Every structure is written in structure tokens, then in C-alpha cells.
Known about the structure:
The chain has eight helices and twelve strands. By secondary structure, the chain is α/β, with parallel strands linked by helices. The strands form three sheets. Strands 1, 2, 3, 4, 6, 8, 11 and 12 form an eight-stranded mixed β-sheet that branches. Strands 5-7 form a two-stranded parallel sheet. The longest helix is centred in the C-terminal third of the chain and has 23 residues, at about 225-250. About 40% of the residues are buried.
Amino acid sequence: MREEKLSAHTLSEGDLLRLRRFSTPTVYNGWEQVSRVDRRSVVNRDAVQDFMPQFGPMIGYAVTLEVEPSNPRHIERSEAPREYRAYLESVPGPKIVVVKDVDSPNVIGTYFGEVNASLHRALGCVGMITDGGVRDIVEMGSLGFKALAQRLCVGHAYAWPVRWGHAVEVFGLTIEPGQLLHADQHGFMVIPEEDQGRVLEATQFMDANECHTVIGASQVLRGRSMTETRAAMVEAEKRFGAAARQQFGKSGEWSD
């Protein structure tokens, strides 16, 4: 059953690829400089595990699915998988599937293994986030399909598409279809639509700002004492905050 509300896609494919080069915490650091959204409202609250950390970050627009593997009645709707796949095909990518497992945290089975990962990859999905389980992670990895999940599991039980294209809550964060997600081994975040036009530039700036100030000052350099390092760090924090304030009007996490 489809209940869809999509937001506009405002970033080019090239910009998405450039954002994917940064870790999710780095993107968050840039995002908070240009956003007025509550910083607590865009990230997962509960612990999530990245089963393909070697793939690095993923970025894509949310498509949503609800499953209930404990309920055998759902498989009586034989048309549901075809209708769900039609929904997937209708949404432009790159896409990240966000799967709400109604049984969670009592994981009984999963809709995602090698076959569904392959199918979703073919339909423009780069990975998934689920508060349920996943299986076949070696095979999923060979497909290049990234998975963030609560845990691994063995079987599928009665996993079946129940609803799709609607808001779902996973790991303490509500995800709407069409929202832009960035995810890696640290967790995941929503990049609000109103901030997407500035988030790449802000991320690049704040990453460079750290390297030119506080990170550089905190490195152990030959011939510099710990006292000199502490003094250099104080000066670097001042330069970091000044650069951030000049660019964004905010001092960032390191400031004087």
C-alpha cells in the first residue's frame, strides 16, 4: 500500500558524489553551520550497525518500506511485491531504502538478503537502513549494496511488503520519503531540503578550516614541547572560530 510524499531533488549528481567523499560527521559539521534546524532532530538516536563499513559513506533519497515478518497473513497479498517495485521504479535515484520492521526489536526475519539487494540495486538503490535484520551480507557486499541494520538474522520468516511510500521511524528518527540521507559507520542523518544548496560548500569549508587550524596545531611536531603544543592549540581555536564566524556567522564546535 503506497502512501507517498516526495520532496524535490535540489543537488546535482556531481554534488552528491562530492558529498559522498566526506564522512557523515564531517557533513554534519558543515550542515550545522548553515542550518537553523534543531541539531538534535536530524540524526539517529538509537545505535545502528554498519555491516559494510569498507564501502565508506552512502548518500541518497529515502524510499520507505514497512514489513512485519512475524505475520503470515501478509503473504496472501500476492500483488504487493509487484506494486512495491513499481513504486521503487517511479522514484529517481540515487535511493536509500529505509525499512521499518514492525517486529523490532524482536527480529524474526528479514526482507533483505542477496536477492532483494540485487533487485533494489537494479532499481537505483545504493543501500538500506533498517531497524530490523539483514542476511547474506557477504553476497550483498559483492553487489556493492550497503546495509545499516539492528542485527543479522538467518531467515525471512513471513517478510513481505506491507506499506511503502510513507513516513517511518527507525532508530529514533522519523524519515519521510524523498528526504536526503547521508550514512556511514557512525550512523545517519537527514539533510533538510532548505539546507541542501549550501551543505557541500559548508562541509568543504569546515573540513579545511579544521585542517588549517585545530587539527594541524594538535599534531605532534618534531622539536615542539607539550607546552608549546597547548599554546598553539589555543591560538588555532581562535583562528578556527574567527574563520567560521566570518564565513557563516557561527563559531563552530572549536572557538575561543
